[in-house]
């Protein structure tokens, strides 16, 4: 059977309406389909030739079949109904499961990370953040929440994403190799008492590992935000926040940004209490 190229919407609604082909309405009774198959997301709806014959005149029936097959680019056997909503539900469930697993196993390390960052900022120190790709975007996102604000009105907090200065990044990569792009910045900016959030979904990004080594040499405490086994990063960091239930990058990153938001909100709460959130 050829795959479907679907150009008209197919749905089940009140009265069992399926779709309109060749100017004719079609209903659930035109198909050999059971309710349990609909609920299970069965991808194929098969023509009920007997119903078509009884409900439509021969000329109308033939016109309907030709229109349905032309519209959906199929043979006479079936109509394809992509199970998109089922896939959406599965992906949401997978993301939720990763977050719940992290909460079960890592609530205390996350609380420790919040306290570490809050104490550093209270003491006049800063937060450094770095990562690659989507993790670079997370570093910038979280840094912006600290420098501007998250939910409440409060003074800006010192946070620097080491992923934003293209001149520094490209010159370091050109002169010393990409593995040094964050480490060199840590050497320039890191001070004892600072905290670094090192983000790597696999835990094996060389540039992140080198930066963590530089942090240790500079007296900067490190928090690893990672996933799966934690890779080489986990044993090198002072605190580990690992989405250990999955190795799927998307699910890890979705949990990482939730962790980042939790850190932002709770650090604000520790430092500034229950201030009023600004209305958008």
Protein model, in words:
The chain is α/β, with parallel strands linked by helices and 280 residues long. Helix content is 48%, strand content 15%. The chain has nine helices and ten strands. It has helices at residues 35-39, 49-55, 58-72, 84-122, 134-147, 166-176, 183-189, 206-218, 249-272; strands spanning 17-21, 24-27, 31-32, 44-47, 78-80, 127-130, 159-161, 195-199, 221-227, 239-243. A five-stranded parallel sheet has the order 7-6-8-9-10, sandwiched between helices. Helix 5 packs parallel to helix 9. The longest helix is centred in the middle third of the chain and has 39 residues, at 84-122.
Task: Record the SSE blueprint.
Blueprint: E1 17-21, E2 24-27, E3 31-32, H1 35-39, E4 44-47, H2 49-55, H3 58-72, E5 78-80, H4 84-122, E6 127-130, H5 134-147, E7 159-161, H6 166-176, H7 183-189, E8 195-199, H8 206-218, E9 221-227, E10 239-243, H9 249-272
Parallel strand pairs: 6-7, 6-8, 8-9, 9-10
Antiparallel strand pairs: 1-2, 3-4, 4-5
Helix pairs in contact: 4-9, 5-9, 7-8
């Amino acid at each position: 059977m050829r795959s479907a190229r679907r150009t008209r919407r197919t749905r089940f609604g009140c009265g069992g309406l399926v779709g309109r082909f060749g100017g004719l309405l079609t209903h659930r009774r035109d198909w050999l389909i059971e309710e349990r198959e609909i609920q299970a997301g069965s991808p194929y709806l098969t023509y009920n030739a007997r119903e078509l014959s009884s409900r439509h005149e021969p000329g109308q029936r033939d016109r309907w079949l030709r229109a349905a097959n032309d519209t959906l680019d199929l043979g006479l056997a079936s109509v394809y109904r992509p199970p998109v909503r089922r896939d959406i539900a599965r992906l949401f469930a997978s993301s939720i499961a990763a977050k719940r697993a992290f909460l079960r196993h890592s609530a205390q390390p996350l609380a420790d990370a919040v306290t570490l960052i809050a104490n550093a900022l209270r003491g006049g120190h800063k937060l450094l953040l770095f990562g690659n790709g989507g993790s670079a975007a997370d570093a910038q996102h979280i840094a912006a929440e600290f420098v501007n604000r998250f939910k409440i009105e409060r003074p800006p907090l010192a946070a620097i994403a080491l992923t934003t200065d293209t001149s520094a990044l490209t010159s370091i990569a050109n002169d010393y190799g990409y593995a040094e792009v964050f480490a060199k910045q840590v050497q320039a900016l890191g001070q004892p008492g600072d905290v670094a959030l090192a983000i790597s979904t696999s835990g094996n990004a060389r540039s992140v590992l080198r930066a963590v080594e530089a942090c240790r040499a500079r007296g900067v405490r490190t928090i690893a935000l990672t996933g799966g086994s934690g890779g080489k990063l986990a044993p090198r960091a002072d605190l580990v926040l690992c989405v250990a239930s999955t190795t799927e990058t998307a699910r890890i990153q979705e949990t990482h940004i939730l962790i980042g938001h939790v850190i932002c909100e709770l650090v604000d709460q520790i430092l500034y209490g229950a201030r009023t959130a600004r209305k958008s």
